[in-house]
Amino acid sequence: MKASVEQLQPYVPEQPLAELRRVLGLKKLVRLSANENPYGTSPAVARAVKNWDFNLANRYPDADARELRRAVATKEGVAPEQLVFSVGLDEMIVMVSRTFLAPNDQVLVSGPTFSEYGLHAEIEGARLVTVPTLANDHVDFAGLAAAVNPAVKMVWLCNPNNPTGTVESLAAIEAFVRQVPRETMVLIDEAYLDFVPDAVATTAMQLPAKYDNVVVMRTFSKAYGLANLRIGYAVFAPRYAPTMQAVRLPYNLNSLTQVAALAALKDQAFVAETVRKNAQERSKWLAYFKANGYQFDESAANFIFFAHPRAADLAESLKRNGYLLRTGLRPGWLRLTIGTANDNETLRRLITTFDHPA
Ligand SMILES: *Cc1c(COP(=O)(O)O)cnc(C)c1O
């Protein structure tokens, strides 16, 4: 076994919901801990999956995902050859870590952020260097730039950031990219970009064509509601895309996944409706936290990060009442996925009751 994996703290995945519900003895249990789409999945995806020709099950899938590639390239305004697909964005994090990291390299992040960047850095024998976020939980770009040195091979920017929900402007990101040496990869994880009020002006999608060392990543797991089907992608500069295709397993995306993602992409009305409802509910939550004197981060995503003097007890109480929130990301703080209007209302009532017992 390689030394770097002996002490590994694994990513803790979500427990199967039905099983947990049974264990807790609840009729209803709502998971607001994984940033999933509470409005389900486009019905067009179900139709596409059902209509898939099962006679192809014994044949390998299209290794290049040609149809999906064309559709994504058109939508995002990038060249089809710049796209690399992965089994969830998770797999892309593995692939880039494997490609760009060697033992004793450094990986730079603004923290707190998504834990998988650090996990896969560690597996490659690299060291994670965390620059703490500013007081308002935005990225300390000056601090990040100061931490760049020749050992730093990758810088992760999660935008909007998980778990804070904060979003950085494209101008701030591009200004940072200009300060980073061309040999240092800047990986921009846009898993939640669809939820940003001005997504078109915020995305860094056009940067890889301008800067070889920039990579922009997306997933179908959040706004598109395909978390179970596992599909994500990244946009690379022409210089790196062929190498990434060589690192990728040739048949990583099965045909059902490709068909599902294509149908999801074509149903932009579903995505727009998800984004609209999320924004409406996000406003209500932010107003609630403000009105009740909570410390919270200004979120542009489908989740909110907030502090509570008895965070662990609150999470436990909400769980017993049928709502799962994410704990363990920062002491005294919880991350809440924005749910449906009904669930949010119930949840706010539960929180108020917890804070002011009758
Ligand atoms: C959810 C998430 C991903 C990965 O999602 P996949 O389901 O693997 O596509 C990547 N980055 C961030 C920040 C996430 O929150």
UniProtKB/TrEMBL annotation:
Statement: the UniProt record of this protein carries the keyword Amino-acid biosynthesis: yes
A Pfam match: Aminotran_1_2
Pathway involvement of the protein, from the record: Amino-acid biosynthesis; L-histidine biosynthesis; L-histidine from 5-phospho-alpha-D-ribose 1-diphosphate: step 7/9
Catalytic activity of the protein: L-histidinol phosphate + 2-oxoglutarate = 3-(imidazol-4-yl)-2-oxopropyl phosphate + L-glutamate
Record key words, sorted: Amino-acid biosynthesis, Aminotransferase, Histidine biosynthesis, Pyridoxal phosphate, Transferase
Domain of life: Bacteria
UniProt keyword annotation of Transferase present: yes
Known EC number: 2.6.1.9
Assembly description: Homodimer.
Protein name (Swiss-Prot/TrEMBL): Histidinol-phosphate aminotransferase
Organism of derivation: Lactiplantibacillus garii
Gene name in the database record: hisC
